[in-house]
Amino acid sequence: MSKSLSILCIGAGYVGGPTMAMIARHCPEHRVTVVDIDAARIRAWQSDVLPIYEPGLKEVVQASLGRNLFFSTDIAGGIAQADIIFVSVSTPTKLFGEGAGRAADLQYWERTAREILTHATKDVVVVEKSTLPVRTAEAMERILRAGRPGIHFEVVSNPEFLAEGTAVHDLLSPDRVLIGGHDTAAGRQAVAAIADLYAHWVPRDRILTTSLWSSELSKLAANAFLAQRISSINSLSALCERTEADITEVARAIGMDRRIGPRFLNASVGFGGSCFRKDILNLVYLCEHYGLHEVAAYWEQVVRMNDYQEDRFVHRMITAMFNTIAGKRIAVFGFAFKADTGDTRESPAIRVCERLAQERAQLVVTDPQALDNARQELAARQVPAEFEADPCEAARGAHAIAVLTEWAEYEKLDYRRIFADMTKPAFLFDGRNRLNHPELHAIGFNVYPIGKPPLTHL
Ligand code: NAD
Ligand code: UDX
To answer: Which of 132, 263, 344, 406 is an S-S bond match for 373, by CB 3.0 to 4.6 Å?
Structure first.
């Protein structure tokens, strides 16, 4: 068994919590502590009700909690003890000053670097877990080397590729673990130390080591490629709606080409989540910074196409419902940015609800896990809405249902009963193409899928 290490993670969010719980579970000889400035979040990690909804996560946390996994607000104390510090704080899009709306806001990141500098008591490996612009490690090293002679700080990059809703599976069986470091003796040693942690459960051939800069860039590149696939299929869904081609058939036909592959080709109301938009805009900003304007414009189009898709969805609702939705009750089925999470950050539901409210529709939002977050998102934008946990109740008296999240339970609802309670003609707009459209049409709904001809009775 290897030497016992003190591992710290700064930032107990969607990444820090699950990642460290997995490390603690598979590395029982190491002590893993996760710290955060948010005391309520830390208390929630220590409780029976975790601060995030993620299938299977509670079991993983509870397997190690209090044994070798600890959550705390003592950031200074944690740093003083640590041999390895993962930094997993938020890196949102900057909303002010230079680069506003595009660049990454690195204020939380830099604050963390200064805290490490102040409180470290021994040599430490600092691991970039947050998604960062390329060459951020250089800035971190400059800060860390500024004031503590005698202590060596080695910075490595270890970006996280988990997706929400499948985080436990993704951490347990990752396609790859990426670790980037400097090609120096200390750099190689630090990379090896991080690789050894993951090797407790990840096969060595899936642990990839690269230069620091390649590692930082690969994270942005992976998200840009994934989002680009969605924008590509969504762009074609618009053409399908004009030509009576069917986007599901097109996706299947192209996805069977092994060079393209079948995954991540589901046309939708648009991609959401805290990562895609912010990371692409960050990439765009970086390209602009380096004078690569054509490259920047290329990637920016992925985000524009997503905005277009969300707006197109609302436009289709309005035109289908006789060009006015003022005063009409619309049941929004799903507010989370995808199924199996309560996360609503950058959810397409936000923009769709905003637009529907501008048209003076009466919104009733339902979601099995995201109602609290939905309430906050809409209140922050002064969008009036009702919130209802039961989808059948939400649809009662409604003129239309808009399915915005692909929750499996929406496939099992009694749509005959729902239809009976709705105002007629009743509309259903499926922003995820998961429901049985011919069946809904047979019940009496006017069904508008994404990228397929509508099935109407009008
Ligand atoms: P999050 O907002 O859920 O968590 C970040 C946490 O950091 C918050 O709890 C916040 O209170 C804490 N924090 C901020 N400043 C701090 C400080 N100075 N000291 C201590 N704690 C501090 O964010 P997240 O979704 O976990 O994302 C974290 C990073 O991981 C981001 O860079 C993101 O891009 C990246 N990432 C996220 C995902 C994802 O699915 N959410 C996936 C891969 C990578
Ligand atoms: C993404 C990346 O997948 C993950 O590797 C990275 O670490 C963080 O960002 P996440 O945002 O959690 O993960 O979920 P993801 O499954 O990628 O879905 C993102 C959005 O795209 C969701 O709104 C989802 O509904 C949408 N999507 C996904 C589609 O519209 N169509 C698809 O085919 C796939």
So the answer is: 344
Ligand in closest contact with the CA of 163: 2
Atom of ligand 1 nearest to the CA of 91: 32
* Nearest residue to 404 via CA among 372, 365, 430, 378: 430
Please tell me if the CB atom of residue 419 comes closer than 6 angstroms to any atom of ligand 2.
no
211 vs 181: CA distance, rounded Å: 5
Domain over 212-458 is classified CATH 3.40.50.150:
no
CB atoms within 10 A of CB 163: 15
pLDDT in tens, 242-287: 999 999 999 999 999 999 999 999 999 999 999 999 999 999 999 9
Q: Whose CA is nearest to atom 28 of ligand 1?
A: 90
- Distance, in Å, from the CA atom of 126 to the CA atom of 207, rounded to the nearest integer, reads 18
230 lines ligand 2 (CB under 6 A): yes
Q: Is 130 in the pocket of ligand 2 (CB under 6 A)?
A: no
Q: Where in the chain is the domain with CATH 3.40.50.720?
A: 6-202, 212-458
- pLDDT tens per residue, range 215-248: 999 999 999 999 999 999 999 999 999 999 999 9
Nearest to 82 by CA among 114, 123, 35: 123
Q: Ligand 2 centroid vs 288 CA: distance in angstroms?
A: 25
Please name the fold of domain 6-202: Rossmann fold (3.40.50)
Whole-prediction pTM = 0.97
